[in-house]
Amino acid sequence: MRVLLRALALSASLLVAACATRGPQPAEPVTPAPAPTPVPSPPPPENARAAGASLATPALLNAAESSRALRAFRISCPALVKRQDQSGLTTVADWRPLCAEAATVTEAGAPAFFRDRFEWVRVGSGEAFATGYYEPEIRGSRTRQPGYNTPVYGVPQDLTRCTRPDGGQGRGRIDETGTCVLYYTRAEIEDGALVGKVPEIAWVADPIDLFFLQIQGSGRLLLPDGGVMRIGYANQNGREYVAIGRLLRERNILPAGGADMKAIVAWIRANPEEGRALMRENLSYIFFKELIGPGPLGALNVPVTPRGTVATDPKFVPLGAPAYLLMERPEASGLWVAQDTGGAIKGANRFDTFWGAGAWAEATAGGMSSKGRAIILLPKGTVARAQPLP
Which of 10, 194, 237, 330 is the most exposed place for a label (fewest CB within 10 A)? Predict the structure, then answer.
């Protein structure tokens, strides 16, 4: 996003390992998955049943979800036929005939298109974990005025990629001695490190709301005159993302099953000093840009689709590829299109589902944490040449 920070919905699991149409964040290396293996198309329920779990089995490839996925796939195609696939599973040449055909497929023909024109493959075990994210709506203003005192920063001019004296590479800044150093932390930025140095693209009423919008990676500012300003991920300070939900559970402040977004926000508001300190333990800080036109934008730099876009790890799932999920949470089951990435969305079968904006989207994404099975749809002929990743 960019990539939607993407960043994650604010369920406990999201805050434990947050995404987001949402920009890339430092993450631990993951163990690569083996080459994909074919499964029947569409898969029978037993192929998408997690061991020991009772999974919902909605009608496979129903018309509504197939039409939604077709629209998302078409939106992705202009980027898909130009972009190098990080997973190495596909080439632009593999996608061109599918994209050309998708432009002519009717909505009634969408189920057959996905069923017959792709190879349905499982990456590794196919055992998947899904969370959710959404587009928050918070109070904001284009200018600073009473009640709107928290800045929304654009990208700092001194934020760059450089090599530090210890050999570390990544986002940082060049200090007064000409040395590459880590960029300012969340606490340093909140304490004024960027005042007068970085343009404020907007101001918001509630710093807690802005914190959680940063985790999502994009959102809508509800302006005093009734208008709406959309903002989206532009860059990140390169510092470590720390999941505050995990911290609250580890410290026995909130129970393991009770650290969802609503409980976390309630605790922060009830304990303002401790809550502010807790949020500052998340060193990561997101810089924004105003989004004009359809949005928010995902990792392919195209608008993401509510209930149609999923964030994945592009090292394992080609951006633009459809994915079929069969999850314990039935609302997360069905066809999705990989249009986004996220800082904590790492691994072959890790998914972050996008639900749009509004109260329903917030509630659904905020509580989304589900195990199940995942199947990736790839152009025919790609599996035969696939090799296990090193």
Answer: 330
Instruction: Determine, yes or no, domain membership for 260.
Output: no
Task: Give the HSE-up count for residue 25: Cα atoms under 13 Å, Cβ half-sphere.
Answer: 33
Are residues 13 and 350 in contact, defined by beta-carbon separation less than 8 angstroms? no
Residue 387 has pLDDT above 80, yes or no: no
Question: What's this model's pTM, rounded to 2 decimal places?
Answer: 0.72
d(CA 215, CA 204): 16
Q: What pLDDT does 62 receive?
A: 84
Range in 48-52, 103-107, 204-208, 278-282 with the lowest mean pLDDT: 48-52
d(C-alpha 79, C-alpha 96), whole Å: 11
Task: Please answer whether residues 374 and 312 qualify as being in contact, where contact means their C-beta atoms are separated by less than 8 angstroms.
Answer: no
Q: What is the CB neighbour count within 10 angstroms for residue 352?
A: 33
Q: With contact defined as beta carbons under 8 Å apart, do 1 and 133 qualify?
A: no
**pLDDT single digits (tens) 35-75:** 566 665 555 433 332 322 233 333 468 888 999 999 999 99
**Would 145 be classed as within a structural domain?**
no
Q: How far apart are CA 227 and CA 246, in angstroms?
A: 36
Rounded to the nearest angstrom, the gap between the alpha carbon of residue 9 and the centroid of all alpha carbons in its chain is 8
Structural domains in the chain (count): 1
Q: Any idea what the CATH number is for the domain that residue 362 is in?
A: 2.40.40.10
Q: Amino acid letter at 69? A: A
Q: In 3-state terms, what secondary structure has residue 13?
A: helix
- What is the spatial distance between Cα 300 and Cα 290, in angstroms, rounded to a whole number? 17
Q: Does the residue 23 lie in any domain? A: yes
Question: Does the residue 363 lie in any domain?
Answer: yes
Q: Of 37-46, 119-128, 378-387, which gets the smallest average pLDDT?
A: 37-46
**3 state DSSP class of 274:** helix
CA-CA-CA-CA torsion sign (59, 329, 215, 350): negative
Residue 318's nearest CA partner among 49, 88, 7, 60 is 88
What SS3 class is residue 286?
A: strand
